[in-house]
């Protein structure tokens, strides 16, 4: 019997019935996850222990932040204060969500990138030409009471567990923002103060096993548009970070989060901390779940390089003009290619 894949909205509902990747997922040869471009033995991203952040070694830890943010823009953190139980419950409920019958999941489906709660697939079905081997549930979560009633009500504990997780990760983000602000030589509340009322979104990414993982991506190389991302991943590898011409595989370490800088941090820091390319590859035998928290300015917040990081005389002029995050976010979703960065649109042209 032939199974029709064209009528399916989600890749989860195609994956189990095909032994080849449908043609709409196949990338050109020059644009595939080529194993010889990946550094599997060498470099890894830094791991920062936050245990002593509020003790006598704070200055040393802030120094580690400065190094990690300026050299990698990606690092892992341990002893981060988010309870193990909260993490475990979040991962379990995310898995349960994606294991529900198709009829239950598709109730949340939408291709409208403006919706504050939606299930979708690939990256942006409205603009892309090649699909990606990923489904995702995207949720706005700050303030929680404004959005919680839109979130899925099945599994029955979904809202409670997700709210607990989002609250706990937000507290961690605020600690990270202070440390990052200090590491830039700014007052500790400066970065936080540039974000207006603050925004927090989450994605629950679900990557089903893929019969031909070398032909497609879970997520192609991209930079995050937000300020800072705190990523939780399960025990299956897939994340890769681009550094000096090579992709570095970031293998999961239990009870750590991965933190990366997004485009807004690059603008605020006037290019001191760059937003870095990263991607997710899939594999043929295991599903993979990752849960990024995207922390961002509120849509009305005006973002621009901080005055202290600009010095016209010493040849470090402002690289970007100021803009509202709403303006940026719209450009981000409008691009045809996920790999295109929109930060350049906001650069001040040198005349
Ligand atoms: C993202 C992302 C990486 C991953 O959702 O923006 O980069 O490992 N995810 O799923
Ligand atoms: Ni990303």
From TrEMBL:
<protein>
    <recommendedName>
        <fullName>Fe2OG dioxygenase domain-containing protein</fullName>
    </recommendedName>
</protein>
<keyword id="KW-0560">Oxidoreductase</keyword>
<dbReference type="InterPro" id="IPR026992">
    <property type="entry name" value="DIOX_N"/>
</dbReference>
<dbReference type="InterPro" id="IPR005123">
    <property type="entry name" value="Oxoglu/Fe-dep_dioxygenase_dom"/>
</dbReference>
<feature type="domain" description="Fe2OG dioxygenase">
    <location>
        <begin position="197"/>
        <end position="297"/>
    </location>
</feature>
<comment type="similarity">
    <text>Belongs to the iron/ascorbate-dependent oxidoreductase family.</text>
</comment>
<dbReference type="InterPro" id="IPR044861">
    <property type="entry name" value="IPNS-like_FE2OG_OXY"/>
</dbReference>
<keyword id="KW-0408">Iron</keyword>
<dbReference type="InterPro" id="IPR050295">
    <property type="entry name" value="Plant_2OG-oxidoreductases"/>
</dbReference>
<dbReference type="Pfam" id="PF03171">
    <property type="entry name" value="2OG-FeII_Oxy"/>
</dbReference>
<dbReference type="Pfam" id="PF14226">
    <property type="entry name" value="DIOX_N"/>
</dbReference>
<keyword id="KW-0479">Metal-binding</keyword>
<dbReference type="InterPro" id="IPR027443">
    <property type="entry name" value="IPNS-like_sf"/>
</dbReference>
């Amino acid at each position: 019997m032939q199974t029709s894949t064209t009528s399916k909205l989600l890749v989860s509902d195609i994956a189990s019935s095909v032994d080849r990747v449908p043609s709409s997922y196949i990338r050109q040869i020059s644009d595939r996850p080529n194993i010889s471009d990946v550094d599997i033995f060498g470099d890894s991203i830094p791991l920062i222990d936050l245990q002593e952040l509020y003790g006598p070694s704070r200055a040393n830890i802030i120094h580690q932040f400065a190094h990690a943010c300026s050299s990698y823009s990606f690092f892992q953190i341990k002893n981060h204060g988010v309870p193990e139980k909260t993490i475990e419950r979040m991962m379990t409920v995310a898995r349960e969500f994606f294991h529900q019958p198709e009829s239950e999941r598709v109730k949340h489906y939408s291709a409208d990138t403006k919706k504050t709660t939606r299930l979708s697939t690939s990256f942006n079905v409205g603009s892309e030409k090649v699909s990606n081997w990923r489904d995702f549930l995207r949720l706005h979560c700050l303030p929680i009471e404004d959005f919680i009633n839109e979130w899925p009500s099945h599994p029955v504990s979904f809202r409670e567990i997700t709210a607990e997780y989002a609250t706990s990760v937000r507290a961690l983000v605020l600690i990270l923002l202070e440390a990052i602000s200090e590491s830039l030589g700014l007052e500790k509340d400066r970065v936080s103060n540039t974000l207006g009322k603050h925004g927090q979104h989450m994605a629950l990414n679900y990557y089903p096993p893929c019969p031909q993982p070398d032909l497609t991506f879970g997520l192609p190389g991209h930079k995050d548009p937000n300020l800072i991302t705190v990523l939780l991943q399960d025990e299956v590898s897939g994340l890769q970070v681009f550094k000096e011409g090579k992709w570095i595989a970031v293998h999961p370490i239990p009870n750590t989060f991965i933190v990366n800088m997004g485009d807004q941090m690059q603008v605020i820091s006037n290019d001191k901390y760059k937003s870095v390319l990263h991607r997710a590859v899939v594999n043929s035998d295991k599903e993979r779940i990752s849960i990024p928290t995207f922390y961002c300015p509120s849509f009305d917040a005006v973002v621009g390089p901080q005055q202290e990081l600009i010095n016209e005389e010493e040849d470090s002029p402002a690289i970007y003009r100021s803009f509202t995050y709403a303006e940026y976010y719209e450009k981000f979703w409008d691009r045809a290619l996920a790999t295109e960065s929109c930060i350049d649109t906001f650069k001040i042209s040198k005349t």
